[in-house]
Amino acid sequence: MIGSTMKVLLQRVTTARVEVAGETVGAIDAGLLALVGVERHDDDAMVARMAERVAGYRMFSDDRGRMNRDVREHGGAVLLVSQFTLAADTRKGRRPSFSGAAAPADGERLYRALAEALRGTGLTVATGRFGADMQVTLTNDGPVTFMLEM
């Protein structure tokens, strides 16, 4: 069903940070910037599957220059940032619809659960601040960017 899938936009980065009101609230060096959109029908089982996908997604080069290493093998970290706008339905018109987005309390709970699940895979995870006006700065390495959907 369209509008009922967790989305994570992964960007391979050499550095990334998120600021709120001029204060850095999360930062990493090499690793992944993961922008997270939580939708209405997302649940804890989906969070667990997405954490395994993010942790195991092969986006880093091996010794032969092929994308065969995941972020753990690369020795990188993850900066997890909630991004409500990823839940937008943009199929019609000139204004996005957010009717498929999770309610704020559900979105925050699942976002925090995803951060904990990623930590459970052995990754170092920094986060933004859910619901805040955030400024994200990154250096995309490659550029390499993938959209993961469940």
TrEMBL record:
It holds the Pfam family Tyr_Deacylase. It is an enzyme of class 3 (hydrolase). A motif (Gly-cisPro motif, important for rejection of L-amino acids) lies at residues 142-143. It catalyses: glycyl-tRNA(Ala) + H2O = tRNA(Ala) + glycine + H(+); a D-aminoacyl-tRNA + H2O = a tRNA + a D-alpha-amino acid + H(+). Its EC number is 3.1.1.96, 3.1.1.-. Keywords: Cytoplasm, Hydrolase, RNA-binding, tRNA-binding. It is found in: Cytoplasm. NCBIfam families: D-aminoacyl-tRNA deacylase (TIGR00256). Belongs to the DTD family. An aminoacyl-tRNA editing enzyme that deacylates mischarged D-aminoacyl-tRNAs. Also deacylates mischarged glycyl-tRNA(Ala), protecting cells against glycine mischarging by AlaRS. Acts via tRNA-based rather than protein-based catalysis; rejects L-amino acids rather than detecting D-amino acids in the active site. By recycling D-aminoacyl-tRNA to D-amino acids and free tRNA molecules, this enzyme counteracts the toxicity associated with the formation of D-aminoacyl-tRNA entities in vivo and helps enforce protein L-homochirality. A Gly-cisPro motif from one monomer fits into the active site of the other monomer to allow specific chiral rejection of L-amino acids. Homodimer. This is D-aminoacyl-tRNA deacylase. It comes from Alloalcanivorax profundimaris.
